[in-house]
Write a structure and sequence with these properties.
By secondary structure, the protein is mainly beta. The protein is built from 1 helix and 9 strands; from the N terminus they run αβββββββββ.
Length: about 130
């Protein structure tokens, strides 16, 4: 009886938190994240986030420091938690290289988002253009 009550309480908590039992912990494997630099200058990509629909919040996928030259495209393979076969979107945080005497002179951080898409194993994100 004691264990039955514990199981019932656990299931009720999961229901209240809106955590789907079938998808909890599932991972979208090897997603190609496609980014195009259209800023007119080099950029430094500093973070990649994805939207986790069950909890309705952004989750950080990676803190990085990837330099992307002007008019360059970059594809990055990542696996995303909790979004397999779910609609999500990506948010890229980046800084534009400023001209001047300083070697590491970058603008304030900016973000660009992808269009919504369904995350599938070995799939691809829509092209994320950095304006």
């Amino acid at each position: 009886m004691k264990y039955r009550n514990t199981i019932i309480r656990t299931l009720l908590c999961l229901a209240v938190l809106n955590v789907p039992l079938a998808t909890a912990g599932e991972r979208c494997q090897q997603l190609n994240i496609n980014i195009a630099n259209e800023t007119g200058a080099a950029v430094k990509i500093t973070a990649v986030d994805y939207f986790e629909p069950q909890q309705r919040q952004w989750r950080n996928e990676a803190q990085i420091e990837q330099i992307l030259t002007n008019n360059a495209n970059w594809t990055w393979k990542r696996s995303l938690e909790l979004v397999r076969d779910a609609t999500t979107r990506l948010r890229i945080t980046y800084q534009t290289k400023l001209s001047g005497l300083h070697l590491d002179n970058y603008s304030a951080k900016r973000t660009a988002e992808s269009a919504p898409f369904t995350c599938t194993d070995n799939g691809s994100s829509p092209l994320i253009k950095l304006p």
